[in-house]
Amino acid sequence: MSELDDYLEGKITFEEFERRREERKAKDKKGDDDDEDDDDDEAADQSTSKPSATETWNPQTETTEGVSPSVQKAFASMIGEGMEECVEEDEDNEDGKMEWKDIGEEDEDDDDDGDEDDDEEEEEDNDDNEVTPGDVFALEMELNRENKKMMKERRHRSKLPRALRGLMGEANIRYARGDKEDAILMCMEIIRQAPVAYEPFSTLAMIHEDQGDMEKALQFGLIAAHLNPSDCEEWVKLADMSLEQDNVKQAIICYTKAIKYDPSNVQYLWERSSLYEQVGEHKQAMDGYRRILSLLPPSDGEQFMQLSRDMAKSYYESNELLSAIGVMEEALERHPELVSHECVNMAAELFIANHQHDKALEALVKFCGIVLKREKETETQTETADQTPAQDTEGEEQKKDSEEEKGKILEVVIPDDVPIDIRVKMMVCLIHQNVIKPLDPMLTSLMEQSPEELGDLYLDVAEAFMEEGEYNSALPLLSALVCSERYNLAVVWLRHAECLKALGHLEVAAKSYSKVVEMAPLHLDARLALSTLQQQLGRPNMALKALEPMYDAETLAQDSSAAQQELKLLLHRSTLLHSQGRTDDYIDTVLTMLSMLLKVAMVRAQVCVVSDTSSGVKHLKLIKVSRNNLTEIVDQDAAYLDVTGKTSVLSRDDWWKLLQRCLTVLCEVKRFAEAELLVDSTLEYYSFYDDRVKRKELEYLGLSAAFLDHNFRKAYNYIRLMLMDNVERTQLWNVFNQVTLHSQDARHHRFCLRLMLKHPDNHALYLLNGHTSLVSGTFKHALGQYMQAFRNQPDHPLHSMVVGLTFFHMACQKFVMKRHPLIVQGFSFLWRYVDLRGHCQESLYNIGRALHQLGLSHLAIHYYEKALTFPPLKLEGIDDDQVDLRREIAYNLSLIYQSSGNKEMARHVIYTYCTV
């Protein structure tokens, strides 16, 4: 400590002191060969640092004079006495460690030598040393640290000022004497001056508890506990008070606080986990029980096993199979000597439920004394011993297979004291291991037992046989169960029917399925299987009867799972009806399904499904109703989400295909109006409307349905929107012409003119606007539109014909100038039309008709008669009768003959060409 003495006397600077101290530490470390001494040095260095916040003052470390061993050690270093005792006490108590690192390093030389010889040598050296200023400084630092530590611990224990401690004591005395009102006033005054002290709140809680006001007592107790949170017993008391007031959640919080400061208390954990179970917090309860398992000592094996069984059962009931298996595996591994038949039975059941039959078999053999006699392995051991590690890794699965084959189980020896439940689980495991022959004695023994008592075991073995495809072995067990009174249940009949169906006994299987439907009418799978069997047996009516609706409308509206089950049933029913050709019933079924999907959309479209008995048979149909006759849906978004959840059993594409098929069938039976209403409702359904491709297809379907229903006004609305979206499609203009031709509505005139402003170069609009002007008598406007089309396509025959006809109409007006030039121009365009079309029935008929209109009858007769000599044109997709103009030609020719007085010739022409 020479450098410390020099520094305290002012001989060297602090930097020089630090340098010397580092050099001395390096020399000491280099010369020290003992690893334990090095570790002790480091521990002493750390122990001299500032104590942590969690460290508390231990009054037992003080001597009778109130001085800790570390202070005594400092004195001993000065006077050289009692070093050995101080060192031993200092090693046993951490409170004596010094705070300043340098002093601690000096003390390390005194207290870190573990050998007795070193301690004796150190004592002799200390006897020769004199008291130095460094020793005095170390003593002052240690005393200062002890004082600060004790003051800090006192503040941690109580935050009540000294000035109020007397008043607090007086309040407690008043409470003990029965002057509760004065005690309450004193406590409130203390709270006003020292609101973070817990003593007045604790006293107030006791006063209100004595007065019977448990609610206030609980509130004051909670405040006191939060101000002094390390008092576990107080938290437990508050938890009990909370439970008395039925406040389970607050009791859980109190137990959580108590566990925080006493985490190893099993009782606290147990109580909190029980409360978690009461409020339904299964995960938190299981976590608490797991902590209890980790805290239980090996001596509490029985409690460990019982808790493990309870936890496994709880996990299994909550469908947490893997967690249940983990708990049971830990129990079997930790206390194998305490494993009972009950534990083995539960563990085997969990393994079997998780399809881990090999582990279940291993547990049964290990803990129940069961012996599996196998074939002797001879060549297998030799072959496996010669294999290299690489071969073992690559062929691990093959080696297992070979071991199973050559170590085949020949016999199963089960002790007599093994219960029947474990025997059955052994059978189940062996069945899943494809070990069938050794089971015959066990199976015979099981069949000798009454199925009324062991029916569940019968069913377990039968289901295991069915899972492995051994239906012949499962059938006797199931037949015994269905004949019993106690186990004559729907689930047993279902397994019986499945077994019979797999064996090909369809007739008997159908009877078993009928029994299932009779006992459990809401079992969908049984209904579908029965319907399929009845259809295979050639009983279509019985197949449809099995698929009758299961739920009423009110249940479907409230229960989502019921709606999904009903949709599956209706889907199979519709498929069956369609295959049988029962169209009306098929439409009823599909409309029922679609009405569930389009419930909200139909309200917006003002469409509903009603029953119709006009044909003598009750069927469903779609009708248009007023909004007053519909039930208004307040929250349509919520209703739409509800419908989406109920109909999620079918995908959107499946619904789309079903809708298309329904529209096709409606049009086949000429129910065009209903198809039109169905399209209107579907366009109000968000999922289909938001899909552009599906929306376009729906519009085309709506146009076709409206046109076939002769609802040309609605058809015009469809085609108008389509043309605005795609003006260049010729097919749309053809449909537009058909719609306007049949509708006799002049709305399309203004539509074409407005569209012409947006698309001035559209060829179809030239012709349509020209036709409109020609019909309305504004021939000049018509001629202007036709000439625009003629300039764009001069070689198109139609343009020449319409231009020529316009000239003829202008020439035929009553007041017109230059009539003859108009006629010449008309004939020039008409003959151009003949040149482009060629000499045929239709072109010559147009020439004759123009001459007939101008009054040139003798010339018209020539062209009419010449046209009669040509056969009708052959056009693909059109009947010859539709393009044959001989009737029109003969009729016009008869008019000319009749006007000239040649009635015989007129009659001859009529009888020749116009006779039906």
Major sheet size, sense and barrel closure: 2 strands, antiparallel
Q: What is the share of helical residues?
A: over 70%
How many strands in all? 4
Structural classification: mainly alpha
Uncertain regions spanning at least 5 consecutive residues: 33-68, 77-129, 152-156, 377-406
| Number of separate helices | 52
Mean of residue pLDDT?
80
Q: What's the overall geometry?
A: elongated
Counting copies of identical and different chains, the oligomeric state is: single chain
Spatial separation of the terminal alpha carbons = 142 Å
Q: How are the strands ordered across the major sheet?
A: 1-2
Strand content: under 5%
Rg measurement, Å: 52 Å
Write structural notes for this entry.
It is a single chain. The chain has a two-stranded antiparallel ribbon with strand order 1-2. A two-stranded antiparallel ribbon has the order 3-4. About 14% of the residues have low confidence. β3 and β4 form a beta hairpin. The chain is elongated and about 155 Å long. By secondary structure, it is mostly helical. The termini are far apart. α17 packs antiparallel against α18, α18 runs antiparallel to α19 and α48 packs antiparallel against α49. 73% of the residues lie in helices and 2% in strands.
